């Protein structure tokens, strides 16, 4: 019995030792698990840093490439701009030289803006009205038929002739809008007894449309008679005979400018 009592403390020390060993093993295992977890986290973090580095490099490369492309395009645009500016300067010089060498162009391209010296070009000179392939000028000055013809000739044309019904309607409406029943000389003139009527260019009136209010008497002496347009109510009956020495307003015509 006494021997058993002596062995009890030793047995307890052994059990305590075993417990301590088991605790140490558990602590060692816990430390190993934590270490493995830390290593995994370190690997993940390293991988994340690597990926971030790759993304940063790719973004840097894209930025550098974009910058290079932008600079190349800017250089190209600057070159094109200088080239266009040089061409514009040459065109402006040719433009001013053209008008200085050919002053007649000022009739067709008058300055429309005195501030910018901008010109507005037309197929007819300034003050003339386009119709078909002709330009017409309605003058409010009064003169006899011969003086009117000379004046129209100095302007590069002749007293107006009517070749089509459209021209007649245009002249009739324009005369109505400019005057209250006042008459305008046309290029109509009698060629004498039995000679009929002819236009200012020498062509026969009989070969085209006619819009007489009353057919002229071909048997009478009409050497001093010319034709006028009086804008009444009916454009088909608006031509009248009148003495060539009378003073009336006039209509001049000339061909439109050609770009050829």
TrEMBL record:
It comes from the Eukaryota. Keywords: Lectin, Membrane, Transmembrane, Transmembrane helix. SMART domains: CLECT. GO terms for molecular function: carbohydrate binding. Pfam families: Lectin_C. The chain crosses the membrane at residues 45-70. Residues 131-253 form the C-type lectin domain. PROSITE patterns: C_TYPE_LECTIN_2 (PS50041). One of its GO terms (cellular component) is plasma membrane. Gene3D superfamilies: Mannose-Binding Protein A, subunit A (3.10.100.10). PANTHER family: C-TYPE LECTIN DOMAIN-CONTAINING PROTEIN-RELATED, KILLER CELL LECTIN-LIKE RECEPTOR SUBFAMILY F MEMBER 2. This is C-type lectin domain-containing protein.
């Amino acid at each position: 019995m006494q021997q058993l009592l002596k062995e009890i403390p030793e047995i307890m020390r052994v059990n305590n030792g075993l417990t301590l060993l088991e605790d140490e093993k558990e602590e060692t295992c816990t430390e190993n698990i934590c270490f493995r977890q830390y290593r995994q986290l370190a690997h993940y973090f390293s991988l994340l840093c690597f990926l971030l580095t790759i993304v940063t490099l790719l973004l840097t490369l894209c930025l550098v490439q974009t910058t290079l492309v932008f600079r190349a395009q800017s250089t190209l645009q600057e070159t094109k701009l200088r080239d266009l500016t040089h061409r514009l300067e040459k065109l402006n010089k040719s433009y001013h030289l053209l008008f200085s060498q050919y002053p007649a162009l000022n009739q067709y391209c008058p300055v429309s803006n005195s501030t910018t010296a901008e010109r507005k070009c037309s197929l007819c000179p300034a003050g003339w009205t386009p119709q078909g392939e002709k330009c017409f000028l309605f003058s409010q000055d009064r003169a006899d038929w011969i003086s009117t013809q000379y004046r129209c000739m100095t302007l590069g044309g002749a007293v107006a002739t009517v070749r089509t019904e459209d021209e007649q309607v245009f002249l009739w409406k324009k005369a109505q809008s400019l005057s209250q029943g006042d008459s305008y000389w046309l290029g109509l003139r009698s060629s004498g007894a039995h000679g009929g009527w002819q236009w200012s260019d020498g062509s026969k009136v009989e070969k085209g449309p006619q819009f007489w209010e009353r057919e002229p008497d071909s048997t009478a002496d009409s050497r001093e008679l010319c034709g006028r347009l009086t804008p009444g109510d009916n454009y088909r009956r608006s031509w009248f005979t009148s003495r060539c020495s009378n003073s009336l307003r006039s209509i001049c015509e000339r061909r439109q400018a050609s770009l050829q």
